[in-house]
Specification:
heterodimer, A: about 350 residues, mainly alpha, about 80% helix, B: about 300 residues, 12 helices, about 0% strand
Chain lengths: ~350, ~300
Amino acid sequence: MGLVALLLPLSTAGGVWIANADLTVLMMIAGILLFAQAGIRPRQSRMRGPLVLAGAALVAIATIAALRSGTVGFGEGAAGYTLAGLAAMAAAFRGIALVARLPETSLPVRLLPPAALGLTLLYAWEGGCLGFGVPAVLLPPPSAIGAAFAANLPVLWQDFVQTVWKGALRGYLIGCTAGILLGVAADRVAFLRRGLLPVANLMSAAPIVGVAPIMVMWFGFDWPSKAAVVVVTTLFPMLVNTLAGLSATSRQELDLMRSYAASHTTTLLVARLPNALPFLFNGLKISATLALIAAIVAEFFGTPVVGMGFRISTEVARMNVDVVWATILVAAIAGSGTYAALSFIERRVTFWHPAMRGR
Amino acid sequence: MTELAAGPVPGPRTGRIGRALAERGADILPVTTVALLVIVIWYAAALLLNAPQAIEQLARKGVTDPAIAELMAEAFAQRRPVLPTPDQVVVEIVTSSTERPVGNVRNLITHVIATAQSTLAGFVLGSILGLGLAIGMAALRPLERGVLPWIVASQTVPILAIAPMVVVVLGNLGFTGLLPKAVISMYLCFFPVAIGMTKGLRSADPLHMDLMHSYNATPFQVFLKLRLPAALPYLFASLKVAIAAALVGAIVGELPTGGQAGLGTRLLAGSYYGQTTQIWAALIAASLLSALLVQAVALAERIVVRQSGGAR
């Protein structure tokens, strides 16, 4: 499939290529050779997917290099390059599908499909921006964002410390702890639980971001007001998840604890809290993304001259879109990192749980 | 024997409604207690936070050592309170909804309708996108391992934080009004639908799958007659989360547009001019709208489940 598509550019863009016959052509040919390699291997071969991906990567790099040299643009009738780019993406998807079918034996095999897909999307973004000459104010290419990220590292680090470390993290810890404790207390008193659950469900659906201006009025412009918004944002999802988790213990386990004459506290610690762990982690993951967003949005309503929300709003006004995207990159890294760390801890802590089996 | 052949006898309707009421009624007392408790705490907090202002104003009137009753009366009737009392908020909601005709910029209902419009537009777009992704991943299982991590990663991008930029950029491209806000709502609400439906489409009973296999059903038939009905509970649970998320997206999308309609605009205006009562009124209106939308989804769920013959 990829092979046929890749032979097309050779015919249409031959003239352009001979004009700047250089590394790009060699890479194209190397890529095609790799596809051919993959094509002649037997269907069961484990190497087909990686070979196709490597070929796609070579062709992709070649097209980007040609675009960077400024000799061609997708809009200037260089149909061969457009086709080569599309073929590289098609081949990448084919390679991802091939790798994804392999049994999940090793970490590289597990990580290759998402990594390859991410690179494919980045390639489409970069190639589209360069080829169609998208103005940087609308959407800067990933390379420009990376450059802005590297150039502004100290400022971005200060913003990160202000927003994530001071505001979001402290609020997150307080909010989640309070949510869990309130959940345990509400679980102990049935009356309280039946009263709190509808209220908590209503509150977790309410647009809590709206309390940001109020919190800024109460706690001032610095990080405490952001932490307060995060506390209110994370409290209710955590409470709802704790209550759901505490009711997840099976009748049999409870009967066993009863036959041991275990006290309410012992039952809670030994049977019900461990069984609630998947729900708690679910709540922690949801709250983590909410906390980050809440802290950033709260900074729109008043902030000192540092912080990610402040950076975004000022740099948009100054038309420095690449810095804005660099800040977004920081937020995405922080969010994904937190999510991945929580998932890792969850796998370590709840490896015994049925939901985790066969992973 | 004839009675047996007659099939199930439909029970009296009152019986079912009566049972439902009895189940709900058990919760009415605790819920009212907690609600009352919240209101009492609210009043106490209002007294605490407004007291400094109130003491100052009483001192200007010449009352230097006010009795607690005097102080309370003053603290609960501030023109610009630090924390408005529940009755002040209710009065604000009622007057701002009725004082001027709907459509006037200073009418609260105008803003509620504007926000509801962009919420629903984003909700429809996001649900379609989420469903498409979930069905695509269910149909092409190998792709799921590549795509799913990115769907999760997409939600760590603080779309709410770049909402102003999205609105400004789309505005420059000539897209103004409803669409930018709807795009932000869509981005927030496709995620729960995609994740929930991915789970739901896999939740069919293996026994039923075997039965379909023994009928020699095509994958499409299995999808339509077994996987989709099995996924309905997951779908509606996700839709409830999604519509609440869409509302948040719509409100934040309104923040940068400035001076246009919407609850977000109302919040920001109240924040700029220190109109705390107006902020709280907008906030309560948003919560009520959220509850209303979630209830609408729940109603749709009941209707769909009944139509598809599912037992509840």
